[in-house]
Amino acid sequence: MIKSMVLLGSTGSIGTQALEVARLLGIKITALSAGNNHILLEKQCREFRPARCWISEAKYDILKLALADTNTEVLAGSDALCELAQDKNADIIFNSLLGISGLAPTMAAISAKKRIALANKETLVAGGELIMKSAKQNKVDIIPVDSEHSAIFQCLQGQCKPKKIIITASGGSFFGYTKDMLKNVSLDDALKHPNWSMGAKITVDSATLMNKGLEFIEAAHLFNLTSKQIDIVIHRESIIHSMVEFEDNSVIAQLGSHDMRLPIQYALTYPDRKASLSEPLDFTKISYLHFAKPDYETFPLLQLAMKAFDIGETAPTVMNGANEAAVALFLNKKISFLEIAEIVIRTTEAISPKDVNTIKDILDADKSAREYVQGVIFKD
Question: How many alpha carbons fall within 13 Å on the CB side of residue 291?
Answer without folding.
Answer: 11
